[in-house]
Amino acid sequence: MKLLFVTWNGPDVTYIEGLFLPIFERLSKQYAVECHILQFTWGNEDYVSRVELACKDKSCYYEVIKVNRRFVPAALLKANLIDSKKVKKYIQKHGIDIVMPRATVAAAIVLKAIDGLHKVRLLFDADGLQQDERVDFSGWEPSGLQYRIYRDIEFKALRRSDGVLVRSNQAKLILASRAGALFNENIITVINNGRDKNLFAPKFDEALKKEIFNSSTEDFPVLVYAGSIGPQYCFDEMMYIFSKVHQLNSLTKFLILTGQPEIVEKNLEAYNTLRANCLVKKVAAEEVPIYLSIADIAFALRRPTFSMKAVAPIKLGEYLLCGVPVLATKGIGDTELYIQGVTCAHMLTDLETSHLDASVQWVYQTLSQDRRTVRDEARRIGERYFDLEKTVSQYMLAIQSLG
Length: 403
Prior knowledge:
Layout: E1 2-8, H1 15-31, E2 34-41, H2 45-57, E3 61-66, H3 72-94, E4 98-101, H4 103-113, E5 121-125, H5 130-137, H6 145-160, E6 163-166, H7 169-178, E7 188-190, H8 206-212, E8 222-226, H9 235-248, E9 253-257, H10 261-267, E10 278-281, H11 288-293, E11 297-300, H12 314-321, E12 326-329, H13 335-339, E13 345-348, H14 353-368, H15 371-386, H16 388-400
């Protein structure tokens, strides 16, 4: 069986290497699924070479179609009218059985490419509500032309699909309702963003902790955030909580792991009094677990908008697998199913000041408790819900259900 993953993205995200390649590697080794990746990207040669090398290491076929990001409408038109033919040729040349486009733009290209290829099955990785995220965070209007075009593509992809992948039960309900009459919601499979529990594991290193913070203090608390920077990720709210915790314990540090350090540094200009206690680092993917492991509390905050009902924050699983207690937000995908009523997590109902202040008290109390106990609980929950092997099994069940 041969599967082609089609995606459209830039160099500022690493989900091919970090999320999908470990899944594809195991699908190949455990279930003999030959995996191919066709990436539309505006990343430079260094970026492409890095991804190409990662794919080769995981025995995954990889090919790039370059996108001119300066003229996005023209690039999208070219992708649909011209590059879709390249996708079709790739499918025919390699004898692809299943095409899996990620999100709306890739779905539009694939729908054009598989027109007439009746034996090719479509496994649509809806991966959130892309157009609704742009309404929530990028200024799109729900009545605007762009939004309506994306919704039309989503509808057509759902109706043409043999299977659909989503990241939350709420996303399943939303897309089933959008797909219209007589749509079989049983073709939608909820997939979690699993991680390798052997890689993402508690790896506390006291020497590294002291080294990176240039500190000789034996025990100082560390808060951590790992991921992208943007309006949905609540940077100011994290800094508010950190500032309050720092007032309670002046030894507290804030470690920010991100692929966008320059943006973080600019945001930190508004927090001069705290800047000396914040460390911003860009580290290799394989180094992330050891950096997470030195932290005592992790931020998994997101702004609880409509589109966030359909996401599954990758970092939530990484934090828990590394044994780090988390501070999260309600209404984000299925987060509440995983960490409701547990000691190692606290969830904010919303981002009002009163709830931020309550989270500060939870952080301070958690830091005052036996950290081994809460770390062990976090690890157990991580293994239960975010083990990569479970995710791979979910993918394989979705693939087998295509018939």
